[in-house]
Amino acid sequence: MFEKSLYDLIKGLRGHKGGENEYIQSSLRECKAEIKTQDMDKKATALLKLIYLEMFGYDMSWASFHVLEVMSSAKYLQKRVGYLGAVQSFRPDTEVLMLATNLLKKDIVTSSIPNMSLPLITLPHIITPSLAMSLLPDLLSRLSHSSPVVRKKTVVCLYRLALVYPEALKLAWPKIKDHLMDDQEDGSVTTAAINVVCELGWRRPHDFLPLAPRFFELLVDSGNNWMAIKLIKLFATLTPLEPRLTRKLLRPLTNIIQTTSAMSLLYECINGIIQGGILDGEENLQERDEVATLCVGKLRGMIVMDSDPNLKYVALLALNRIVATHPTLVSMQQDVIMDCLDDADVSIRLQALELAAGMVSSDSLQLVVNRLLDQLQRASVPAAEFVESPESPNAPTLWPSDYQTDVIHRILDLCSQKNYSEILDFEWYVAVLVQLVGLLPPLESEDDWAHPKEQEAIPNVRMNAALRIGTEIRNVAVRVKGVRMEATRAAESLIFVDNRSTFFPSGSTIGDGVLGPIAWVVGEYAEYLLSPNGTLMSLIDISNASLPSRTLPLFLQAIPKVFVQISQTSQQGDFWKSEMSLLLARVVEFLEVLAAHPDLDVQERAIEFLEVLRLAAEALTSDSQEIPFLLAEVIPNLFTGLELNPVATSAQRKVVLPDSLRLEEAFNHDLPGLFHNLESLSSYESKSWETSDFYHLPELSSPNKQGRDLALVDLQPHASYQNFTDAPVESSTAVQRRMLERRERFKDDPFYIAPSGESSGMSTPFHEALNTSNGEVLDIDSIPIVDLKLGNEKLSHVDFDRQRSRRIPVGKLVVAGDETFETPISLTDTSRPKGTGDDHPTYKRSLLQVDSSSLGNLPLAKGPYPQVSADEGDAEMARAMQQVEEVRLRMQRASERIQLEGTPAEGTLVKKKKKTKKHIASDGDVGTVTEKLAESAIGKKKKRKKKAQESEKLPGEN
Amino acid sequence: MINAVLVFNNNGQPRLTKFYTQLDTQTQQSLIAQIYRLVAQRPASACNFLPLPPLLSQGASSSASGPSDAPTQITYRTYATLSFIMISTSTESPLALIDLIQVFVEALDRMFENVCELDLIFGYETMHAVLGEMIVGGVVVETHIEKIIAGVRAQEGALGKKKAVQAASTSLGRGALPGLGAWR
């Protein structure tokens, strides 16, 4: 039999276009057979092929034992294949590694340099603490090997050893330091040592401070740019600890910046100056500013002079770091940064955008935003026109819509930062917001809609752009009284049905997010509306009924508010009544549509207002010339009262919970059983339940609506159903009872307006009449609306005025801040101790991350090193040997089992993309897929048979 | 440190994968696929830095100011049909990494004499050897081309060249990687 070499495998792969998978499967089967032979050549070739296929995702973990066999080969090239196999295929759970200890020991101390290099470059990939412990002495001896090749690799290898076994660093560091201090040492070894120190440096900068003079020497004299870059990176972590270093470094760094031709070194110098905090200190300001100016000048040069996008990118990156400390210096470069905003490369544009956000001031804000707006406008036009020829030279490159969305978010970030403190002209801002609505990119991703309420609660989380624009308009209307009228009119223009097609050209769903907050604005500030009638018509346009159920409640709240506005402002003449009746009829018509809305919130609000307005319409039909009391007083009073002010999102959390509130206590301990009962009941009753009843009997307390009702149900079983059946008879008392309950429940809730006299100032004869007629003895006056005395001494003074008293300079409009309480210390987050970098090492570990946190706590004592005592070491060794023996036995048993049963003939392909697989299967390849499934289901007998067939077939092929 | 070195061609087929941490094969493959998607989107004129793909951005700390163990930079360079990718932490300089890729490619060019994708497919072991001379355990140990070449030659003598000659004899056509001397 003649085996395929790697060369043949690859050629075969290229020859089987389309049928690669089958070819690979058959190759894997061959490899499996070949790797079990005693012939080392065959074994190594088979392993090499497996490693090649592993690169494409074909698992080879089953071959780990054979990898060890090949590693132990006497021939160098075979050995190399074995080591490569170990690097590429060993995983943390590969157990055979324990068997390799002796082999690795032997190879580390071999006389041949290439042989010795193999374990040195392989160990970093496979090292474990126990392996590190047993190999450490051998590796340490390699540090003094005569060849620099061995020394440099050993230095790095020891570093990786130290990551899993920190003790190693304690023993290795003195030797590495000797190499570092030695002037005669080979340059490569020094560089490797510096690279390692640079990795260690940020973990434990204190240990390397004493070496600073040597580093300095290397930086100035070596002339090796690679090493200089690393040294500068290292110094950036050292200077914060030793301010005196700053002065020493300033000159050579400046020198390098001025003279070097290597852009990478120049960039790292500037970066080092920034990150090392050299620009941040207080003393000798003159020199610092000079350096800062020099840096910024050089960075500007990198952006302007070179057409290299990489330099542009890193320069912007560096400027982004400077902007925190020297915003004025950076904003002087505004012109070039602005040009980068138009760059063809998205990465550069995003960096420039971030930079723009960092450097804006009151003066430059309008400029920046207008420029971004221009960009958006240009982007949205060609998107439609240049679809056929996106490559045409002058047309701006087509931007992905997520970039456009990002720009919109940035504009809003820019303007709203620091509670709008940078905005001088709010009328301009309102105009910008209206413009932005028209520029919303199509294909807004729908993911953002998932939890809109939580997102609104956390301002940092990116909301849907449309929703955010709407929210901004609302914010401006609420916070800035000076432009409330303009904001309301802007909202009005957006809400007009006729305008909607122009503002949201590419489909109706995009702007839906805007409509919600805007509807609130037109309702709340209806007195500023230009045309209340038109607005009302737009609000009750029948097309609105299809809006998302999140937006509709806001519409529903706005409708009566605007209606009240109309009813109060329109002329009290003969036509007034008929006009109002007409309007009411229209509104009622719209509300009726929503009264059957599937969303409960929408339904509830619609029905509430529907009933109230029906009453109003009824009142209008009376003959008297007077305006019905309901329309003149009652309904308007629903919406007037205290002005709404912005409340800080954290304010709610600071309200101390009353003692009587028990959030932890279950309503009912047998909740599942309760639901079970209800379900069986409802299924029983459902025959008599008409759907229309469900929708049109709003007073019915639906049992699974509220937990509180469930508690009631528990006390008097089937109470709600009783109510239902007895409804016609009992309704009045039941309603009474429920009203009372409700009133009681919400008496402390500031958002429910209790019918009390003094506190709200809206007690009316109507209420009294109602109350007396009901015959209820209820001390309504004792129910406060807002109980500001929270019963807590600490909280007793509510700091509403703190924010407001922050007077903004004359000429600027007053922006209302968020209202919040004085913070009791015990409740704030600041009381939590600030963790240092080492305190939270792994709570969110990134992929590919090499954890070096264990190094941070290790003392690199300069005195006598606390050696691992001999006994301890021996015991450890014995334990390790025992483990090795165990694993060896297990492996042996496992390999015997394999011999008996035979592993599945197919190598398992680790799937890269499940979707495409499925797709292929559905395309008509179902046959092969099912075949495979069947194949794996068939017992070992058939497999053997198949193998036999194949081995018969193969010689013929070759 | 450098967390991974990847080479794949224009179709996303891997030509070299080297992860300096142990990672299961499935994750490796999906990471390669994600990075390939990012690289494939970029025009030739764009800069050589990639944003983090979803797999990597999960754990990365948002405060990128100080150094950390998490990889934060992805540098790539495309030569003809091949893209070379280096994933690294912030302790590496981005511009130096571009140079390092250049050194890697130049060293391969020296080993294979006018290197092309086919050479690297067939000279797969040699490519690993070259990388092994340059980077050990994610730390750069050598940037000097002569020394890298000498190290590889010491390992395999004329073997690497022999393979290249073999590959050249196939009729699949060779095109050298252009732009070798273009940068710097």
From TrEMBL, chain A:
Residues 899-958 are annotated as: Disordered. Keywords: Golgi apparatus, Membrane, Protein transport, Repeat, Transport. Residues 910-919 have a biased composition (Basic residues). InterPro entries: AP3_complex_dsu, ARM-like, ARM-type_fold, Clathrin/coatomer_adapt-like_N. GO terms for cellular component: AP-3 adaptor complex; clathrin-coated vesicle membrane; endosome membrane; Golgi apparatus. Belongs to the adaptor complexes large subunit family. This is AP-3 complex subunit delta. It comes from Penicillium vulpinum.
Automatic annotation (TrEMBL), chain B:
This is AP complex subunit sigma. It comes from the Eukaryota. Its main location: membrane. Pfam families: Clat_adaptor_s. InterPro entries: AP_complex_ssu (IPR016635), AP_mu_sigma_su (IPR022775), Longin-like_dom_sf (IPR011012). Residues 1-154 form the AP complex mu/sigma subunit domain. Keywords: Membrane, Protein transport, Transport. One of its GO terms (cellular component) is endomembrane system. It is found in: Endomembrane system. One of its GO terms (biological process) is intracellular protein transport. Belongs to the adaptor complexes small subunit family.
